[in-house]
Amino acid sequence: MSKSKYKKTLVSTVVVSALLLSGCGLFGVEEKEQIDPPKEVTYTNEKTEVTEKTNTTDKTTAADKEKDAAVEDTRKTELYLFDKNGYVVPQTLELPKTESVAKQALEYLVKNGPVTDMLPNGFQAVIPDETKISVNVKDKVATVDFSSEFKNYKAEDELKILQSITWTLTQFDSIEQVKLQMNGHPLEEMPVNGTPIGDELSRKIGINLDVSQAGDITNTKPLTVYYIGGEADSYYFVPVTKRVSNKVESNIDAAINELVKGPSVTSNLLNEFNSDVELLDEPKVEDGKVTLNFNESIFGSFDKKMISQNVLESLVLTLTEQKGIESVAITVNGKAELMSEDGKKLTKPVTRPENVNTGSF
Known about the structure:
The protein is of the alpha+beta class.
């Protein structure tokens, strides 16, 4: 297959980059853990020194212990909420630890519920106010039963509510599919606008559907990519499901192509690539790692061999949505010479974070 087939032109939109990239994962998790390590304390018999340590170091230690205890009592959970532009967007929040994680996640999607004081700016809950929920998980299928309040939503929100519930529940390893009920009766369609549900729901239903360039939709398949949403100093990543031709054999190649095209000009979403970036070779997949070989334009506007955090995260989030892809390695002209924005060499493939949009960037 010729190299020219894989040359692609990328849409350029200037945005501010996020926090710096860890060598083996997104969002700088490992780097954060190394900041301000605990200091060794030496005690003496001198009263003045003991008093000083009690007034400073001991107070700091007590505060740190209290903070650590609070973290131990919570669990990071992705909630698929509505942003101000109407997109269904994952936001990772610290929820109290519980054995009923699936039920808890849905309860935190209820309007005027426990999530109210935790909502990020511009975001809102999804499920109608006062809806009661029960969840039963068996054989990786979550059966959700809603009270009658569930039907108190606007017709235009119906599909997005369906997507939010499905994607929130399928974040858990124990759940791959979802069934919906209301007052104990199975729902074959949504109660307000009649959106078909079928027997079981999965992530195959897509999210934030974009069919503007699909043409004949019957000859296409869904593919989810991640673009940038929000504003400066508060960017986040938005999953968008597009339709690509059934004739495309490689979902990886199709995903790169959709990132190349970028979001719709009317979408209020952003994409951070130089217009002359080229993918020089066919993506290579081995042992869960996909290797992408770009030209030097992937470095963006940096003077040195650095790659934008937003470019990396869009690529990694998009490609790890594909079955069997766990990490992404990027080379330039066949060489692994990239650096993160803090000047550190990216010597390892980049893996998907455990949680998306943690508010740490």
